[in-house]
Design goal:
This protein has 496 residues and is mainly beta. It folds into three domains: 140 residues, Immunoglobulin-like, CATH 2.60.40.420; 168 residues, Immunoglobulin-like (Sandwich); 123 residues, Immunoglobulin-like (Sandwich), CATH 2.60.40. 8% of the residues lie in helices and 42% in strands. The chain contains six helices and 33 strands. The strands form seven sheets. A six-stranded mixed sheet has the order 13-11-15-20-17-18. The protein has a six-stranded mixed sheet with strand order 24-23-26-31-28-29, with no helix packed on it. The relative contact order is 0.12.
Length: 496
């Protein structure tokens, strides 16, 4: 009997039926090394450090979970979607005993944390095989900023698939921003934004080629694993939202009915002052922290995801494999119409609350010293012999064994990123936060620490990066994770 590998199995089932994705329990019958669907488990959803140490067991596995009231079969950390929230303070040590009970290799990336990029820390070149255990251990630097960070897989070639399956969790560093009196008094909530594509029985649906080229999106939009959850504002009249876009491709353009957002922090931590915004655009991987004032008539107000056109390739404008228009021309992976706003959550306050004041001052965000070098990066896509359509940085797809960029530790550089393609690309750098200097030559309106920046079609974005503390090899890439898996990534070596 002819044997097929997992990739061939998925391709055959997907091409024949539109397919069920990750049918481990069926695949196991023909391949004993695969891992079957496991039973639900009930483990803590929050892990906090005590006496300077956070220690836990973390398991990646395929399990039944509830998405709202819907039964789903997803990839999970400790049986949960989203994964358990981890909370630490600067100076704490983290020890994670990680067990891979998936059917394929995986690892962990601590997105946004400034920790070593080698060894057993934020090392994306680690490959943890099925049934293997790996011990992660690192210490958060004493001067690490407070902020909203997150963890997810980063095994190249499998990143989008595994994140789309549900593998994502918050990693919170507590600190000075949390102690500002107005912020401390606010009702704090965490919002993990994820999208999913499920069939009628709750199984994940196989990817289609066109959706991968655009970046896969699902028709089910969840907040903390729920559909349209309600958040209440307490009598003090102030709500603090800490939001992460944990989707592999979807952009979230957020608007709260009749309420502005008061931005207090971005990817890398607090701002210098509060910024009032009517909308928030969150690309994959980005985080924000905002305050919301209950200063309108008591009632229910909807958090909306508004339409956003992130571009598209000509071949995606026709009918897709799932019967809808190509995703980038206005419909999602399953033919869902993205031309109308989607309700993500509801904010409720039943009675008038006392007027509250916002903090006048937040944290210091110092300007970086002048750069010593300017580097140029061009983002695009193209055909490569033997590989087909791939995504490129400076005309090349990712080569695992190459060193694409070498920098010196304790230097500051400017990177100019030009998008000459037909789709928006969020650009992410591992290990070090940066500041956006300008877009198309126009200065950024406020200073902030970032690790992911949107570079729109035809746009040139200049960022300034300090390479601090940790030498070693890491990566930079597009955070539409199908684009990263298809080549839009480079290796970065930070030399002592």
């Amino acid at each position: 009997m002819k044997k097929i590998n997992r990739r061939q199995f998925i391709a055959l089932t997907g091409a024949a039926t539109g397919g069920v994705f990750l049918l481990n329990h069926l695949w196991e019958r023909g391949e004993s090394s695969q891992v079957s669907l496991q039973a639900p488990i009930n483990l803590p959803r929050l892990h906090k450090s005590t006496n300077g140490l956070l220690e836990l067991d973390l398991e990646a596995s395929y399990r039944p979970v509830k998405l709202g009231q819907k039964q789903a079969y997803l990839l999970t950390y400790n049986g949960q979607v989203p994964a358990p929230r981890l909370e630490v303070q600067a100076g704490d040590t983290i020890r994670i005993r990680f067990k891979n009970n998936l059917f394929e290799s995986t690892n962990l990336h601590y997105h946004g944390l400034h920790i070593p990029v080698t060894g057993n820390a934020d090392n994306v070149f680690v490959s943890i095989q099925p049934k293997e255990t790996f011990n992660y251990e690192f210490t958060i630097p004493q001067n690490h900023p407070a902020g909203t960070f997150w963890y997810h897989p980063h095994r190249h070639g499998l990143v989008a698939e595994q994140l789309f399956g549900g593998l994502a969790g918050l990693f919170v560093v507590r600190g000075d921003l949390d102690e500002i009196p107005e912020i401390k008094a606010a009702n704090e909530e965490f919002l993990v934004l994820q999208d999913f594509a499920l069939d009628g029985e709750g199984n994940m649906i196989s990817e289609a080629h066109m959706s991968i080229m655009a970046g896969r999106e699902g028709d089910l939009l969840a907040v903390n694993g729920k559909f349209n959850p309600t958040f209440s504002i307490s009598k003090n009249g102030l709500l603090r939202w800490r939001i992460v876009n944990a989707s592999p491709s979807r952009f979230y353009r957020l608007s709260l009915e009749k309420h502005p957002f008061y931005l207090i922090a971005t990817d890398g931590g607090g701002l210098a002052e509060v910024i009032e915004l009517n909308e928030l655009l969150l690309t994959p991987g980005e985080r924000v922290e905002v305050l919301i004032k209950a200063d309108k008539e008591p009632g229910k107000y909807r958090l909306l995801n508004l339409p956003y056109d992130r571009g598209g390739m000509g071949m995606m404008g026709g009918r897709g494999m799932m019967g809808g228009r190509g995703m980038m021309s206005g419909r999602g992976m399953m033919g869902v119409n993205n031309d109308a706003p989607t309700i993500l959550a509801t904010v409720n306050y039943d009675a008038p609350v006392k007027p509250v004041s916002l903090p006048r001052k937040l944290l210091s965000v110092p300007a970086l010293p002048k750069h010593k070098q300017v580097r140029h990066f061009t983002l695009n896509h193209g055909m490569v012999p033997g590989q087909g359509m791939v995504f490129l940085i400076n005309g090349k797809p990712y080569e695992p064994n190459s060193i694409d960029t070498q920098v010196k530790l304790n230097t500051v550089e400017d990177w100019e990123i030009v998008n000459t393609g037909v789709m928006d690309h969020p650009f992410h750098i591992h290990g070090n936060q940066f500041q956006v200097v300008s877009r198309d030559g126009k200065p950024e309106p406020y200073r902030a620490w970032k690790d992911t920046v949107l570079v729109q079609q035809g746009e040139t974005v200049r960022i300034r990066i300090p390479f601090r503390d940790f030498a070693g090899k890491t990566v930079y890439h597009c955070h539409i994770l199908d684009h990263e898996d298809l080549g839009m990534m480079g290796n970065l070596e930070i030399q002592k």
